Backbone:
């Protein structure tokens, strides 16, 4: 499986943005109803299997004037969904996510200057999985504006990257079960309404 732009470029947006040092930064909270990290991995070269995480939380800090953004995203590892209960349970076990010991997956992006020229930004960050923190780069498309159905501002992103699970100590099933994990994450976050009092 070829390395995807997703984990090279979750998540500069998928799941919490925390902007530092911007005078006009606004806070956005991740909308878990529209934020579902999906992963893909080869299964003994016969097929590409997919799963997703159903619970993601976080906040985004975004300065519309300077176009600076940062992120801090937390994924509930136990919310993994493989489509079958027994398979999901297997993925929560010690051989894979070991959710009893490591209940969350965490991604942080320091302040980043979005480009006004290119559509896709390549954003560096740090991913913590199984207690191991490694640098990753995400390919991110960001769009912010007025929500067409809610009286709120929203920031959304489509994120893509690829990691090697062995870098985080997840070695079970190698090489039959692929080492490269492709991650695709749609992210939406709603602007926090400030109390007028």
Residues:
């Amino acid at each position: 499986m070829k390395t995807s732009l997703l984990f090279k470029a979750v998540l500069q947006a998928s799941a919490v943005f925390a902007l530092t040092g911007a005078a006009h930064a606004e806070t956005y909270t991740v909308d878990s109803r529209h934020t579902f990290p999906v992963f893909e991995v080869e299964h003994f070269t016969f097929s590409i299997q997919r799963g997703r995480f159903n619970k993601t939380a976080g906040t985004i800090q975004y300065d519309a004037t300077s176009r600076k953004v940062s992120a801090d995203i937390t994924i509930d590892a136990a919310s993994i969904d493989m489509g079958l209960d027994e398979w999901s349970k297997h993925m929560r076990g010690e051989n894979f996510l070991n959710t009893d010991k490591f209940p969350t997956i965490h991604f942080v992006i320091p302040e980043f200057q979005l480009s006004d020229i290119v559509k896709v930004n390549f954003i560096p960050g740090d991913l913590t999985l199984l207690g191991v923190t490694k640098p990753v780069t995400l390919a991110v498309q960001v769009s912010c504006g007025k929500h067409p159905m809610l009286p709120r501002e929203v920031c959304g992103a489509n994120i893509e990257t690829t990691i090697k699970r062995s870098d985080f100590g997840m070695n079970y099933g190698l090489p039959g079960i692929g080492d490269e994990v492709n991650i695709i994450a749609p992210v939406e976050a709603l602007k926090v309404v400030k109390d007028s009092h």
About this structure: The chain has a mean pLDDT of 87.
